[in-house]
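HUMAN: Quick job: go over this next protein and say how the chain folds.
***
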Amino acid sequence: MRSHRFIAGLTAAAGLLLLSACTGPAAEPKAATGAPVPADTGPLRVAVITHGTAGDAFWNVVKNGAEQAGKDLNVGVEYNSDGDPGNQAKLIDNAVAQHVGGLVVSMANPEALKPSIEAAVHAGIPVVTINSGEDRSAGYGALTHVGQNEAIAGQEAGKKFKALGKKKLLCVIHEAGNVGQAQRCDGAKAGFGGDVQTLQVDISNPADAESRIRGAVQTDSALDAVLTLNSQVAARAVSAIKAVASKAQVGTFDLNSDVVAAIKAGEVQFAVDQQQYEQGYLPVTFLKLYRDNANVVGGGKPVLTGPDLVDKSTVDKVGRYVQRGTR
């Protein structure tokens, strides 16, 4: 009996080999981008690696979005961040070495991250970029980019100040070398149409940032508008303006509980909300769809999460979501 079964097994195997020889090797399926379609079995692991600094409320919301998507979709999500471009590149390299199933990367300094991202793509790891580096994303081989267009967002902020009747604007940059922040200030200048100056501060030194803003508005009494590019810097700008009794008004990018309170109190006129929760949640979803169904979202174009301007007319509705860490 055992010999009959062995012979039958050999016969079946020979038939399969013959069929394979007749039909030829199957072509590896390709996604729309030309990248190999990843295997659609087993748990998906995604590494989210950003340039956020420790304790930054903005990036905490991004992290919340990514981790919630992981829970909703049964995807393993590991979040890491480092504000130093070289260290961020090392985090990407480590994720590639661990053979993660997908990468989500913010690119505040695209050139520093280029070799690491391209190495991930070469290794067959699909990448979605977020927040910064929109114009380099496709060139580096990413599936898509998720974020707001910084120039458009800056223009909207500039237009808002113009509508408020402001004449001279100070745009405060808090991260040296961050291409997105330069684009915001350039956009604000285009939308404002008036006199725009920039001021460099260091977000890692809040007291010094406040001192520099205070010095700027005190030295130039013509400054009647201050645009900060981060919610934590906005709070420092409000304090600086109060300290010297300046009449300048503050607008900011991004929301946190302090900014919500300041808008309600009339101390901040508006916030440009890029809805960063989506920047965490959507890329994990997109990588899951790509792994399971070879979907590429965006058709080669960025997926925009903003801008959405929040002022006194909308702050009550949006504010409750800020409190729970999703806006």
